[in-house]
UniProtKB/TrEMBL annotation:
Belongs to the UbiD family. Its EC number is 4.1.1.61. Residues 299-419 form the 3-octaprenyl-4-hydroxybenzoate carboxy-lyase-like C-terminal domain. It comes from Desulfoscipio geothermicus DSM 3669. Signal peptide: none annotated. One of its GO terms (biological process) is response to toxic substance. This is Phenolic acid decarboxylase. Residues 9-85 form the 3-octaprenyl-4-hydroxybenzoate carboxy-lyase-like N-terminal domain. Keywords: Aromatic hydrocarbons catabolism, Detoxification. One of its GO terms (molecular function) is 4-hydroxy-3-polyprenylbenzoate decarboxylase activity.
Length: 448
């Protein structure tokens, strides 16, 4: 099966980016602790997990360059390629169960997720083990069009999951079904190629199938196979698929859970998933995403950057690039590079960025000579090209993100900083110092 998790792991292994942990590890905290220490450096494959025969992998994509490699492009061209896939999705290819690795083992009775899978507990106050790397597939009850997304899923019973659903497409689907007193069928695919994870985070209108976005990102159409107990299609090369349904009118306490802003999302009554069947490969690999690691925030951040670039480009055609920073959890802080031609363009870029997504909270706009991926360079631009009374403005009481603990139940202030050079000032005042032949001279050549 091409373009599966196993293909990606083989690539990481060849590149020396996959480390195999042969010592036995505990799924409670130990996997998370080691994965966090390797964050952005290595992917880790835990071959011996206490109490299980199944290995666990984490940290599939700890740097944005790996996403570029997966998309067969450069870091600079990555956002445009992702945006093109969103605009031009490619139909997936349906295959038979006989040719789908995820159908090698089928379990439809006596399901006990606690015993079947080495699902880690990540943080000190987490309510228990959580599935964190599953793409959730569902269909619009009215149109039948698929949607995929990622949610935190608490193992609250042998065949029961608690789920956090934010007010996006899945919530819309579930609300439709619940109003009619019907369950919403879902499937959870664990252990997929990172581009499938990335596609799940695309910001689109209802009616766009993110699996087809993944299909457009891959060199060949994504292969899907029908589920056993629900009317859904899932990646045929997934390691594990959990089939179930969201129960109407049922709410149970879910949480707390350590989230991407590095704080705990609080416990609250939330919807419940009843598990109906499980299919998996022989000797499957369980994938977990450790919350607040680069793997976690980059998956969502890069998809959001692609949308942000397109929206800002409509307001300011000379935009060069955009970046949702790691320090802002790849959600809250945006840095935008423009080649300024007219005064006011920086503020227009800020307005566009704040309107692009409710999560964006602070926006800095810099000139194109500033490296937006270098926090020191961005801070230098703010320090030397910005005057607070002239270049900083605040919008109060806007819709933000409920996971931001500083917000008032999601109501948040927003700030824009124009750190571009004023066009009316002499350009020589802002000329960067430079050393001739700096890029040609190599220190290693002078060291013994």
């Amino acid at each position: 099966m091409a373009y599966s998790l196993r293909d990606w792991l083989a690539f990481l292994d060849r590149e020396g980016k996959l480390k195999r942990i042969k010592k036995e590890v505990d799924p409670v905290f130990e996997i998370a602790a080691l994965g966090k220490q390797a964050d952005g450096i290595y992917s880790l494959l835990f071959e011996r997990v206490k109490g299980y025969e199944m290995p666990v992998v984490t940290g599939l994509v700890g740097e944005r360059g790996l996403f570029a490699v997966a998309m067969s492009t450069t870091v600079e061209g990555m956002l445009d390629k992702f945006a093109a896939a969103v605009e031009n999705p490619v139909p997936c290819r349906l295959v038979s169960s006989n040719s789908a690795p995820v159908k090698e083992c089928i379990v439809n009775k006596d399901i006990d997720l606690f015993k079947m899978f080495p699902i880690p507990t990540h943080h000190a106050k987490d309510a228990g083990p959580y599935i964190t790397a599953a793409i959730l597939i569902a269909k619009d009850p009215d149109t039948g069009v698929r949607n995929i997304s990622i949610h935190r899923l608490q193992i609250s019973g042998p065949n029961k999951l608690g789920i956090l659903i934010l007010p996006r497409h899945l919530w819309h689907f579930f609300s439709k079904a619940e109003q009619k007193g019907r369950p919403l069928e879902i499937a959870l695919a664990i252990g997929v190629h990172p581009l499938v994870l990335l596609a799940s985070q695309a910001t689109t209108r209802i009616g766009v199938d993110e699996l087809e976005i993944a299909s457009a990102l891959l060199p060949q159409p994504l292969e899907l196979v029908k589920c056993e107990t629900v009317d859904l299609e899932v990646p045929a090369g997934a390691e594990i698929v959990i089939e179930g349904r969201l129960l109407p009118g049922v709410r149970e306490v879910e949480g707390p859970f350590g989230e991407y802003p590095k704080y705990y999302g609080p416990a609250s009554p939330r919807p419940v998933v009843e598990v109906m069947a499980v299919t998996h490969r022989r000797q499957p690999i369980y994938h977990t995403i450790i919350p607040a690691t680069r793997e976690h925030v980059l998956v969502g951040g890069i998809a959001r950057e692609a949308v942000l670039l397109q929206i800002v480009r409509q307001a300011v055609p000379t935009v060069k690039n955009v970046h949702l920073t790691l320090g802002g959890s790849c959600r809250y802080h945006a840095v935008i590079s423009i080649e300024k031609k007219h005064e006011g363009e920086a503020k227009n870029a800020i307005f566009a960025a704040l309107a692009s997504c409710s999560e964006v909270k602070h926006v800095v706009v810099v000139d194109h000579d500033v490296n937006i991926f270098d926090p020191e360079d961005v801070e230098w631009a703010i320090a030397t090209r910005c005057q607070a009374g002239r270049d900083v403005f605040i919008v109060t009481g806007a819709m933000g993100n409920k996971l931001d603990p500083s917000s008032n139940d999601g109501i948040s202030d927003k700030m824009g900083i124009d750190a571009t050079i004023p066009l009316e000032l002499p350009a020589e005042r802002f000329e960067k110092i430079s050393i001739p032949e700096y890029n040609d001279i190599k220190l290693d050549d002078y060291l013994d």
